[in-house]
Design goal:
This protein has strands spanning about 5-10, 15-20, 30-35, 40-50, 50-60. The protein has about 60 residues and is mainly β.
C-alpha cells in the first residue's frame, strides 16, 4: 500500500491526498498540479513523529 499525505491547494483551498515519498527520502520537494483546479504548486515533504508530512505552497512563495 502506498502511503499518502494530505495537502491543501494554496490557490483554491481544496484539500486532497498525494502519494508520499518514503520516510527515508525526506526532506524533499515536488512540483505538483492541484487535482482540483490544476494550479501548479510545490509540495514540501518532511518528517514529524516518524511520519511523512506535506505542505503545499504556490510557486511564488
Amino acid at each position: 500500500m502506498t502511503a499518502s499525505a494530505e495537502v491543501v491547494c494554496p490557490t483554491c483551498c481544496e484539500g486532497f491526498a498525494v502519494p508520499a515519498p518514503d520516510l527515508s527520502e525526506v526532506p524533499c520537494e515536488w512540483d505538483y498540479d492541484c487535482e482540483v483546479c490544476c494550479a501548479p504548486m510545490r509540495i514540501l515533504f518532511g518528517a514529524e513523529d516518524g511520519e511523512v508530512v506535506a505542505e503545499a505552497r504556490g510557486l511564488g512563495e
